[in-house]
Prior knowledge:
Blueprint: H1 7-24, H2 30-37, H3 41-47, H4 51-74, H5 80-95, H6 99-112, H7 114-145, H8 153-174, H9 179-190
Amino acid sequence: xxxxxxxxxxxxxxxxxxxxxxxxxxxxxxxxxxxxxxxxxxxxxxxxxxxxxxxxxxxxxxxxxxxxxxxxxxxxxxxxxxxxxxxxxxxxxxxxxxxxxxxxxxxxxxxxxxxxxxxxxxxxxxxxxxxxxxxxxxxxxxxxxxxxxxxxxxxxxxxxxxxxxxxxxxxxxxxxxxxxxxxxxxxxxxxxxxxxxxxx
Length: 200
């Protein structure tokens, strides 16, 4: 009789296993991985037939928690420009000090399965596309309502995403503090577009 699904146990094993893999290397033997987790190898293989399955589950968990955190911060604002600022700051706040984990998971998934990595990126892009369209629509509505200065909403949303990603890489590579760059981006790029600053 097959074992019943244990999603919470599986998730916790994935989180712990990734810590071991990040510390000891992606090629750590499954037997060693099981020992580090305090379980038997067959139990680990039941939950995760390959290292790729471990990485995939851990990355899915991380991105889901990120989305929940970021969307909650964005929802604190009604002005579409302030929502973009909140998005940038929230993504960086969520990963603060943990950027290497995200980079490791992305690289590990690519190393384990290039095809699966492409699928994950595609899913992420489709999710972001829905968010991107909504952000662009809000900006256009703001322009029509006079609460947002005229500009190219499509270009602005692309610029914000590029800034989010670029600053993440900078922090991983150099450990630079992001607040000054975030503040400068807001003051010089986003704030001038706000026509109704009282709307927060």
